Amino acid sequence: xxFSVPPSADDLVEMAAEIIENxxxxxxxxxxxxxxxxxxxxxxxxxxxxDLDDPFDLLALYRGGNEISPGVxxxxxxxxxxxxxxxxxxxxxxxxxxxxxxxxxxxxxxxEIARYNDFADDEIQQIVKTLNQVMV
Length: 136
Prior knowledge:
48% helix, Zincin-like, three-stranded mixed sheet, two-stranded antiparallel ribbon, alpha+beta
């Protein structure tokens, strides 16, 4: 995708769906029932929950369908997992770094899904690095 104007929330959701379809095997099993939504910024409740000084500090948030709040899970659930992307912080990061937008969104998605599923930092970095080399 090439953009002459900043991508919309719908553009980012479409991009995320494509990224999720092409995740490596080690993450694929965690993405069967994932819903992607894109909001402009985290709401006040999330800002308070994560004690954010600036709403631009949160690029994305992954919540398991059976999660009430971080670390607290429901006993019964039929809800899909949700990946929330925050458009303005992502676009801000894109402008600041000058990185490829697709690569940036891919790294954000991988990090959120992997952290939620207890991958180690070095594992996450290796997955991102490998995918960036393959996708070039």
